[in-house]
Specification:
alpha/beta; eight-stranded mixed beta sheet; six-stranded parallel beta sheet; 17 helices; 18% strand; globular
Amino acid sequence: MKKIILFSLVLFGLLSIGGCSSSKNDYKIQDGMIVFNEPARAKGQQSVLRLAVDPIPVVRVGFVGLGMRGSEAVRRYTYLEGVEIAAICDKETANVEKVKTFLAEHNLPEPAVYTGEEGYKQLCEDADLDLVYICTDWEMHVPIALCAMEHGHHAAVEVPAATSIEECWQLVDMAERTQRHCMMLENCCYDFFEMATLNMAQKGLFGTLVHAEGAYIHDLRSLQFNQENGYVDMWRLKYNTDHTGNPYATHGLGPVSQILNIHRGDKMDYLVSVSSDQFGMTEYATQKFGKDSELAKTPYALGDMNTTIIRTHKGRTILIQHDITSPRPYNRHHLISGTKGFAQKYPVQSLAFEPNAHAALSPEQLDSVLTLYEHPITKQIGEIARKVGGHGGMDFIMDYRLIYCLHNGLPLDEDVYDAAEWSCIGELSETSVRHKGMPVAIPDFTRGDWEKTDGFHHAMSLAHP
């Protein structure tokens, strides 16, 4: 018995020193920092930085996942030219029938239909597609995206693209091996204010960029605990029962990463992350279902508020927060601070510039500057985007840009390295939280190529500006 106890203690000690993870890519502790394994690029794989493929005049799209997000994406795609909705798939037959009826009512051709838990496999194998558009629960994102690319299709996948470091590497490796696009559908990169601040930063209005902030502060209790009309099978609540840290960093991180030229001249180096305890979900479940209900007694792992701080290779810092439990107004932060100016979207839009940066611009001055520096893309299609909608129009701009780049054989605005970098914060922040805020190195998914592109830019066709 003593030998068994001794062996257990030794094993525990080895795990504490060497580290263990939900990923198969085990980490180690090196120089006071947790470092995940970074596998070398396999023979035959090539980088997909600035990947461009042959132009696709008519993009044939297959949609997988036709719930809240997927059915809305299908609706938006009916407004895009040069697109054919060729296939639809959902594990629930009722969702498929609703979308079929919608397309028929708009006099559009009937798509190929796939159903069941693994209907996506048949869609990828059988359908004549250029793009697979994935709007399922998080844990199915990677299997479907991998299947799509393996069968020669480009993949567009909802956020987060992956939930573990291992999955991030799987997406990167498959994209490099197949030379297919894998775009994470981070719509907040296309918000009107975010794109205006990107334009301002690229024109030097903020000077040298020093610090940025992003967040996802959005009270989702009513959806998480809605067994009828919330997340199917309450999948998001189940995920948050097991995981802490920041599982949904991309809305805040994506726009500031583009502004900071992440993997296009700079890279995220390491992070530290801490979470509050969990209070709000238990209180909500108790009030709604009673103190003796299973939902009230469940020990949820996700802290109410997570704060993660990232330092980049070039010495800039990024603060990212996550809170989907507290009763407070929606907030993505989106804050940019440089040596000459400042921008903030929430809670009140404001800009400030040298030499009078102690005070924000007046409302009239703010409107004038935002008009002057409106991004060329939103200036071009902003009117129709607002009409089509989708989070104020940014969803439509995202879809428009994806199809525009495929039509013209251009690199996408968001590549597979973005998908991996922005999604990996989930497991990395959880690892830091579980190690009492210990620094965690952020993997270089470009494998050393992060300096080969001189800044972030939207690719534009000379023939179609």
